[in-house]
Amino acid sequence: MKKKTLPAFPPGAPRLIYLFLLLFLITAGANAQTVTGKVLDNENKPVDGATITVKGTSKVTSTNASGSFTINAGTNDILVVTYVGFATLEVPVSGRNNIAVSLFKGDGSDLNEVIVTALGVRKASKKLGYSTTSVSPDELVKNRTANLGESLEGRVAGLNITPPAAGAGASNQIRIRGQVGFAGADNSPLLVINGLPIDQGARFAEGRDQPRDRGDNLANINPDDIESMTVLKGAAAAAIYGSRAARGAIIITTKSGQKNQGIGVDFTSSYTTSQALNFMDEIVQTEYGQGQGGNKFTTAAQIQGNGQFGWGAKLDGEPAINYDGVTRPYSAYPHQLFDFLQTGTNLTNTLGLSGGGPNGSFRASISTTNSKGIVPSNEYKRRIFNVGINQTIAEKLKLLLNINYADEDYINPPQIGTQGDGAVNFFNRMPISTPIEAYREHAKDPATGAEWKTSGFQGTVNNPYFALQNGQTYKEDRNRLLGTATLRYDIKDWLYIQGRFNYDRGDNFAEWNTLNGTGANTIIATSTPTITYRGSYNLNHTTTTDINADFLLGTSNQFGKFSVEASFGGNTLRSEWKNIVQTSTNFTVPDLYSYRNGTVKGVNDGFNYSQQRVNSLYGTAEIGYNNLLYISGTGRNDWFSILDPSKNSKFYSSVSGSFVFSELLKNQQWLSYGKLRASWAQVGSVALVNPYDGALIYALGANLFNGQTTASINGTAAPNPYLQPFTVTEKEIGLETRLFKNKLLLDIAVFDKVTTDQIIDVNLSGASGYLTSKQNAASLKNSGLETLVELKAVQKKDFSWTTSWNNAWLKTKVLDAGNPSGTILLLYFNGTGNEFLGEIRYTEGLAMNQLYTKTYKRNDKGEILVSGAGATIGRPLASTTNPPGITPGFQPVGSSIPKFTGGWNNNFTYKNLSVGIHIDYKFGGTVLSSTLLNMTRQGLSKMSLQGRENGYVFPGIDEVTGTANTNVITVANNGLQNFWTDYRNNQIGDPFTFKSDFIKLRNISLAYNFSNLIKKVDVLKFVKGLSLSASCRNVAILYKDLPGLDPEAIQSSGDIRAGYENSSLPTTRNYNLTLNVKF
C-alpha cells in the first residue's frame, strides 16, 4: 500500500510565512515601548519595592528606593501596581512612556489591598471571608521596643499583648481572641516567618520552680528586617495550618531587596533608656520603723530574729541598733528598691546591604543589641544575621531564600514572683528604717562568711547585695537558625508548582549557681564524715530541631465573570528534642561551682530525648463572581506519629465567603467600599499531648531478683493511647465599609469559638496503680465583638491627621470541666513558694482563669462577721462555704482575663514631620496582690497604720452577740500584727483583691525625614535618605485600680499566674532615639 504523506507547502509558501512573521515582529516592535515611571504614596513619598506587572503577561519589575521603575510594555497594555499595605491600581499605558502613579494606604479593608495570608499567599482584601489586620512595618520601627511583640500592644482589635516586668530580653504574653486551652497550655499564636511555622516559645517566669523570664522567639526577629506583618485572627484565616492553627497566627515576611534598585546600604542606630516607675508611695508607710508591739528592737539578735516587722515605734531620728550591730538614725529611708535599681539601656545597631537587577534582588543585614536591665547585673545581648534572596533562575523558575540566625545571651535575668532571692522581694518586705548603705556594705557576715542575717525570714527574704557581690550568676546562651528555601515554577500563566524546605534549629545552654551561704547561717553543709559546703550548680542544655518540607500546586484563572483559584499541597514535619540536666550540691572545695565538685547529684539528672512527626495533605479552593461574590474553602488532613496508629488521622476544614456589596452600589458617592464576610472553621492542637503519653514505659530499678535487675512501671500517670488533639470550632461574621471617598473606615467582627475534647489530667483511684491519666474531657468557649473605626480627619497638601480606634469585647466560659465536681484546680498559690492568697480554677458556668480566695464571712444582711470570743476576738472571720470540689471557704472573685481591651491611635504629619500618640486600655480583669498582703501583715503598708496610736475597731458584727463589734485591737502585745497575720493564715483576700483595669498614654513618637533637605546639599548627595525619630513609651497611667503597682507588672507571660501579683518588678518608662541613614 502506498504510504500517504502530508502535502508539501505550495510554491512560495515559506516566503509568505517569513513575510507574515516579519510583519508580526515589526508590528510587535512598533507596539512595544520602554515605559518609565514613579510610584508615590498618598504623602508624595517614594514607594520602595512596589511591584509593576504588565497585566496578562509574565513581565514584572519593581520600584527602587526613589520609587522609579522601568518596564517594556505595549501602547495598549495595562500596568498593575501592587504593594503590601496599599490598594492595588491598574494603570493603562495609553501610549505614554512616562507614568506617575499615586497609591493610597490600606489597612485590610480596601477593595484591592494586597494581604499576605496563610502559606504566604498574597490575596486582595476583598476576597477574604475572615478577619485579618495588616501591621505597618513603619509603625514597628517608629514605636521601637525591645521585644517585637510589645510594639503591637493596643494596635490590633482582638490581639491582647501583656509585657511582664521581667528584665532585659523578657517575653510577652500574646493572645488572639482569648485562650483556646486551659491555663498552662500553649495559648500563644503560631508565628509564620517566611513560610516557616514556629511557636512563640515564651520561656516565662512561673514562681518558685522557674523564677526567671528568658525571652521568646519573637526576639529573633529584627523589626528593621520586616517587610510585612499580618495578624490572622480567626480559625478560618489560619485553618490551612490544621493542628497548629487553633491559636491564630502572625505572618511575618522579611525583606529580600527590590529588583532594579542597584546597590544600597542602610544603617539604623537605636538607643533606649529605661527608668523604673515608682508607684510604691501609694502603699508604703513612712511613719513607723522596725520593731514589734510599738517598740524598737534593742539588740541585733532581736532584729536577726524578727527584723522583717515594721510594728515598731514612731520614727524619731534617734540612734537605733541595726541587724549588723551598728547604730543608725531611726528615720525613714524610702525608695530603697528604686535606689537599688539602675537606669536600663538598650543599644541596637543594624547594617543592611541590598541590591537588585532585572532578574532578582537580595538583602543582607547584621544587627547587634546590647541591653542592661534595671536590676544590676542583668544584661541581654543579641546578634542577628539575616539574608533574603529573590532570584529568577530561568524564565519561569524563581528561587526565594531566607536565612535568619540569632545568637542571644541572657545574663542574670531577675528572679521575680516568688520568695527567696530577688531585690523586689527583699526591699518590699523589709522596714524602711534601715538605710540601703547598710545592706550594701554589710551583706556578708565576717564571722561566718555567710549572708548576714537581716531578719527572721532568712531564706525567704534574702539580701540581693550578697548575691551581687559574691558572684551568683545565671547565664544562658541561645542560638537559633531559621532557614527557608523556596522554588517556584510557573508552568503556565495560570498554573504553578512550588516546593519549600524549612529548617529550624535551636540550642540553649543555661548554667547557674546558688551561692554558698545564701539565706543561711553557715557555709557548712555537712561536717561528718567530711566537711562539705553549701550552694548549688545547675546545667540545662536543650537542642531542638524542626524540619519542614512542603509542596504546593496552584492555579488561578479567569472565565468570563468568574475567577477560580485552587491549590493542593502537602507537608511533612519532623521534630526532635534533646535535653541534658545536671545538678550538684554539697561541694568539697568551697566556692567552686562545678558538677564534679559536688558530692550530691540531682535526682533528675540525665539525658532526655523525644521525636515526633506530622504528615499532612491540604487543599484550597476559591470561586469569585464579577468582583462581587467570593466563596472559599480549605481542607487539611494531619497524621500524627505521637497518636495511636489506629486513631492518628485528623481532618480540619473551613468555609468562608465575602459579598462586596459596594459593587452593586457604584452610583452611591458616599460608599467607597463595602463588604460582608462570614466564615466557619474547625482546627485543632496537640500541644498538650507529649510524644510518649500513650506508651507504657518501664524503668530499671536498683533491686535484683535472681541476680537480674528488676523493672517497674515508670511514673504515676496512666498511659492513654486514645488521646486526640483538642478541637476548636469557630464561627465569624463581619462587616467592612469605607465611606466618603475612603475617609471613614468601619470594621466589625463577631465571633464564637468553642474548644472541645480539651486535654486534662483526670484523677484515678490509687488502687489502679496510677494517680492520674490524660483524657479528652473538657470544653471551653470564647465569644466576642471586635471593632475598628478609622477616620482620615484632615488631608491637606502639607498636613494630615489620621485617627483610629479599635476595641474588643471578650466573654469566656467553662462549658464542661470534665469531672463530676464541675471544677478543676489549676494552681494553689500557697503551694508554690509559700506565697499565700488563693488559687486559680476552671469551674463550669464561670469565666476561664477564675481566681478564688477566702472572703469575709457574712450574715444574711451581708454584714461582715467578727469573732466574739477567744484569742481571735475582734478579728474578721473567713467564709466557711464548702461547695463540691472547692477548697472550703474559697469563693470566686473574678477572672484574670480582661473583658474589654482597646486602643486609640493618632498620627499627624506636617510636611516631613510626623507625630504619633497612642492610648490603650484594658478593663474587666482581676488581680490578687500578695505584695500588699505581705507588706500589711509585716506593718510596712499604709493599710497597717489603722489603729497604731489609739487602737482599731474592725467594722463588723459580733458573731456571738449579733451586735456591732466594739473590741479594740492595739499595737501592744502584737495585737495589730496578729490581726493582719490572720489575713495571711486564713487566706482572706478581700482587702487584697483588685481590678487590673488601666488606661495608659502608651506612646508618643516624633519623626522627621531629612531626605529632601540633604538633596539640596551637594556634599551629601550620596545620602539617599536620612530620618531621625524619638519616642517615649509608658508615658503615663491615666487610670488604674491596683495600688502600688502598674497593673501590667505581672511576673509571668503565661496564663496561670497572670492574675496573681507577688514581688513584681516595676515597669519602666522608655525613651528612644533612632537614626536611619540610606546610601
TrEMBL record:
Compartments where located: Cell outer membrane
Span of domain TonB-dependent receptor plug: 127-249
The keyword Metal-binding belongs to this UniProt entry's keyword annotation: no
Signal peptide residues on this chain, from the entry's feature table: 1-32
SUPFAM superfamilies: Carboxypeptidase regulatory domain-like, Porins
One GO location term (cellular component): cell outer membrane
Keywords: Cell outer membrane, Membrane, Signal, Transmembrane, Transmembrane beta strand, Transport
Superkingdom, taxonomy of origin: Bacteria
Keyword Signal assigned: yes
Membrane topology recorded in Swiss-Prot or TrEMBL: Multi-pass membrane protein
InterPro entries to which the protein is assigned, alphabetical: Beta-barrel_TonB_sf (IPR036942), CarboxyPept-like_regulatory (IPR008969), Plug_dom (IPR012910), Plug_dom_sf (IPR037066), TonB-dep_OMP_SusC/RagA (IPR023996), TonB-dep_OMP_SusC/RagA_CS (IPR023997), TonB-dep_rcpt-like (IPR039426)
Similarity section: Belongs to the TonB-dependent receptor family.
Listed name of the protein: TonB-linked SusC/RagA family outer membrane protein
